[in-house]
């Protein structure tokens, strides 16, 4: 079946945007499964940088339908900004290929407010959210307070739902946080305008997706964030509010447990994460700073500097299991050029114990110390190399060591930002 699911193997920011854009050259539909504008991906085409937070990466290829899926939470203001960005940059045609699932939920103004208030309330135990209202939007979805994009198609329904939920939210704002109530009139008028602007894109995407599968078209489902930020399987509570793993992508794209799926993991040549939470291989010295500067490790959504360290093989092997990975893509391989030695974490030491498995208890995460396998580095710049066998022997040894460690083939290597800076060992489609 021509279906590929793209998942991040660590804490997000693995370079999924570029890889989805690259693979999309042979796709018919790209579906974003979950998350909201708390995620961001950068695509560089012929030296020009495009940053998106909601619209799938494949939008920069003609003829490809791009779907904002059921599992997403969408802030209309952010989405309309991206739509205008496409118009301003000569991609007006792409908007005819943009579709929004009727089942996707809306991020409302009170969600952003509650996100900030909740983080302040946590004080030293803050999660480190983006403040974009994503967690509270998913919270409302689960609590059945959520408002969906389909509600924008009938403003009478939207009005009823907004009035009910705002009555509830205002009580919390006033009684718990001692904040003034939000104005129903102001929010309604704002979303009345959004309704007119977004109506052309909001459709029932289920038959579109399943008709495409039935006719053997190539589909890509991209998840936002990464495995270690999954609500169930990540470093809880320092996680996102949805399911970035492959199974979550199926759910967020109106798909069931289909067979013959290609589950593609995206892994950086080193590891990074944004926000609070455990990170055993984090380098707090010049190595971490070098990786950050060479890799441009600053959040595309918030601009926050990312924490950086050596590649964590324990996390990678865990992600391979959780996502049932069939192949791996390694990105930002060029960033490691210039290191004489490269470290790869094979297991953890926790007190007197050795563990090859991820801990679940916060105490164990706090005591986990990485145990490294040292490999030879390479001094040369590999960003212009087009073929695998032309890479330095040490670079190939590093790739093949990773393959042997997780017992999964490395299909694609990214050696630079641009779409063309890609080495393919095995085609996805």
TrEMBL record:
IMP binds at residues 13-16, 38-41, 130, 144, 225, 240, 304. Substrate binds at residues 300-306. Pathway: Purine metabolism; AMP biosynthesis via de novo pathway; AMP from IMP: step 1/2. The keyword Ligase applies. Binds 1 Mg(2+) ion per subunit. The active site is at 13 (proton acceptor), 41 (proton donor), 141. It is found in: Cytoplasm. This is Adenylosuccinate synthetase. It comes from Atribacter laminatus. The lineage of its organism: Bacteria, Pseudomonadati, Atribacterota, Atribacteria, Atribacterales.
């Amino acid at each position: 079946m021509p279906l590929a699911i793209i998942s991040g193997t660590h804490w997000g920011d693995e370079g999924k945007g570029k890889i989805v854009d690259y693979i999309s050259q042979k796709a018919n539909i790209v579906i974003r499964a979950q998350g909201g504008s708390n995620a961001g991906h950068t695509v560089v085409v012929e030296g020009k940088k495009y940053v998106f937070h909601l619209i799938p990466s494949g939008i920069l290829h003609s003829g490809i339908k791009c779907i904002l899926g059921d599992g997403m939470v969408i802030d209309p203001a952010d989405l309309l900004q991206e739509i205008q960005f496409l118009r301003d940059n000569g991609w007006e045609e792409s908007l005819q290929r943009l579709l929004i699932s009727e089942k996707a939920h809306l991020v409302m103004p009170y969600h952003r407010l509650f996100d900030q208030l909740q983080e302040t309330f946590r004080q030293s135990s803050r999660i480190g959210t983006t403040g974009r209202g994503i967690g509270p939007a998913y919270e409302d979805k689960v609590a059945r307070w959520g408002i969906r994009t389909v509600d924008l198609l009938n403003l009478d329904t939207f009005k009823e739902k907004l009035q009910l939920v705002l009555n509830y939210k205002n009580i919390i704002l006033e009684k718990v946080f001692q904040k003034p109530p939000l104005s129903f009139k102001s929010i309604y008028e704002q979303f009345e305008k959004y309704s007119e602007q977004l109506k052309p894109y909001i459709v029932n995407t289920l038959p579109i997706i399943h008709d495409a599968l039935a006719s053997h078209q190539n589909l890509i489902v991209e998840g936002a964030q990464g495995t270690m930020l999954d609500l169930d399987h990540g470093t809880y509570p320092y996680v996102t509010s949805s399911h970035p793993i492959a199974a979550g992508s199926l759910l967020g794209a109106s798909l069931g447990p289909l067979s013959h799926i290609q589950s593609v993991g995206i892994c950086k040549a080193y590891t990074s994460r944004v926000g609070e939470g455990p990170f055993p291989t984090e380098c707090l010295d010049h190595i971490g700073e070098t990786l950050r500067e060479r890799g441009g490790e600053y959040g595309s959504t918030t601009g926050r500097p990312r924490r950086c360290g050596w590649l964590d093989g324990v996390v990678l092997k865990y992600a391979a299991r959780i996502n049932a990975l069939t192949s791996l893509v390694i990105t930002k391989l060029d960033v490691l050029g210039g290191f004489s030695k490269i470290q790869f974490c094979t297991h953890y030491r926790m007190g007197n114990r050795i563990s090859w498995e991820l801990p679940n208890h916060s105490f164990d995460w706090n005591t986990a110390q990485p145990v490294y396998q040292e490999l030879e580095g390479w001094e040369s710049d590999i960003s212009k190399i087009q073929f695998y066998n032309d890479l330095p022997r040490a670079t190939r040894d590093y790739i093949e060591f990773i393959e042997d460690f997780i017992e999964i083939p490395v299909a694609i290597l990214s050696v630079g930002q641009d779409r063309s800076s890609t080495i393919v060992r095995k085609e996805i489609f």
